[in-house]
Queue: 3 jobs
Job 1
Amino acid sequence: MLHERYGITDPDALKFRFFAGVSNQMFTRQEPLNNVVRATLACLGLVLGGAQAITVIGYDEAYDIPSEEAQLVALRTQQIMAYETHLSATVDPLAGSYYVEAITDETEERVRAFMTKIDEQAASWPRSRAGAGTARSSTARTCWRRASPTATSRSWA
């Protein structure tokens, strides 16, 4: 898409690099040691998804600042994933997976459709700025009308 749409030819600029981290929102306060499994599976998913940098948090971060033991387990989880699974020995460990290819194609279609919608809206922007359109003034009027009762403590109409 970067090459097609913007003419970018530098191979390094065309690489998709992203950082991700395991979130404590997936952790539970009850039986916190089970969070080690949750963190490991999340880390595996990030590796298979192509993340270049991953942060794994401590298993007790659902309810507290991580203990030294939890930090060490999180570090070791990353190290095992990086050095003992050999997932990095291949460029794309899920290459050829019908399911992954299908959802990738679907995601690309949805992204392209969304970008088309944005382009269509952007095309109307100069007209609205020049006063030819009414979207901007209509939005301003609506905001003013809704804010006025709030400012004067009257109920919304």
Job 2
Amino acid sequence: MLFTNCNMARQYSPHKKYRDSILVLLITLLSGCSYAPQKISEKTAATQPGSGQDELTEALNTIKNGHRQEALTLFGALAKTHPEMAEPFVNLGLLQLEAGNLDAARAAFFQASQLKPELAASYNGLGIVYRQMGRFQEAEVAYLKALKYSPDYGNAHLNLGILYDLYMDKPEDALEHYKRYKMLRGEDKDRIDKWIAAVKLHLANNEEPQR
């Protein structure tokens, strides 16, 4: 799982509640900010002593229990003892992003992408960082790279849709990715439907978004 985080910069008139609905969803998604490697079993971990899987599980459980600072310390230690593992760096990036430390988050996500280039979560994280830095073209490239490696990655579709919708004035592209996210993820259907309707109305009226 990966969280998304987005501070809205512009809205379509007259949808004043549009921003608030997006923020509510994004805060909800933010509550699940951890990434674990796929297909890791207890048997696998047990047969690989010193692999770092036990420490990774402990750190992930610490996040689930709401102890963010302790988790940051655990992931930092794991990144030092097992610098070959991408997962600690992804989670460090997520925690730093949640804390608003954009440079540290970017460095962690970038390191994860170097260690495991096919790990889509790294690029999704980079996209969020670049979006918050106002580097929208780089955010777009990062999200597209996430989707290159994982075409059905719902959060990347959502983030790219928001980027196109609110920051790059590409409503047609935003609509495509909102619809894709809705198809992939069943939750928040009503909220996504409202976003889709707002973009369609914008396209129908050919209105410029307020800045």
Job 3
Amino acid sequence: MAFVKLDCAILQSTIWFDRVGRDVFLTALLLAEPREVSEPLEQLRVNSLEPTGWVVPPGWYGFVPASGLGIVSTARLEMAEGLAALERLGAPEPESRSQEFEGRRLVRVNGGYLVLNYMRHRDKDHTTAERSKRWRERKKQAATDTRDTVATRRVDTAERRCDTYARSASASASASVGVGVGVGVGGVGDFSSRAAATGASVASPSPAPASPPADPPVTSGSREPESVTRAPVAPRNLAEALALPLAERAEWAERNPHAAEWVQPQQWPEVRAVAEALHSAGGLAPPRLGAYQRDSGVRAVVGLFAAGIALAELLGAIPGLVESAWWKQGRRGLSALTPEVYRRATAPEPRAAPLTQADAVLQRQLDRVAMLEAREAEQKRVLTQ
């Protein structure tokens, strides 16, 4: 369901002093949903289909899919004064604080009414300071986590270097001991005796210490720490949503049901294909899909895609599902397509368990008893004739 913000500044607006016009305008706000106008639209008169001469420029507005009579009836007003209020809201107002659209607020177009300043009030942000503070705190915490991760890696690297150095030193010491024993035994006794004759001391050469392995070069292009994750892409309109994979955009719509109105899931070709296939298999007319928050069928199909079910698999399961007794009994529709229903429709039929040896023996005994009973009955029938 769409939502709209009500600015407290309306209390100082000229519309607040027009009770009937205020009720009509607030009712239209509650009925409106975001809609993009790609081409200029002519404003129509409230009581006829003649254009007024003013044109609505392209942009985003709040679209009310209702007639003037429907808006007035919903506002619980008298029809004459309600229609007169619609005319005032669609006319220029020199006393208005905002001269955007020459003071017009609600105009009639082909198909319904447009709330002209709908998006300006909806996009108005009253919580910038608080959200900026939370963003700075999250950024500071992320930087702290990154430093801790890098420090942990450096400690691990230093420990590995120390272990490697200790193993290298131990191996060098063992090799030097082996060389000293070989010199004493391998026939170089002349050198030892000459050294002893001259009084020179013979010292075994000490092994050179093994140099620790060098650290890998650290460059500015090193990959990001594991604790840093990238934020998911948030589509802002239908075109950006269609550029994402189906499962990803469906999951995003489920997580952000209010923002899903902007990406219009009812216009996704996959959702329309499922709806048309279901109604065609059931012999019904093509469906009219509504907004995501208002149409439970659209939400059900998006939930199937968010659960990882591919479009081809879903289309393949629809004919069998529609022919099932469960589906025909309840006269169900698009909103009944849940992941559990899909799993039941595509689950293989249970196979009968094979007979064990004991079951086979018992079955043969039962067959023999039945055969003997039949033979005895036949004999009695012959004797009684």
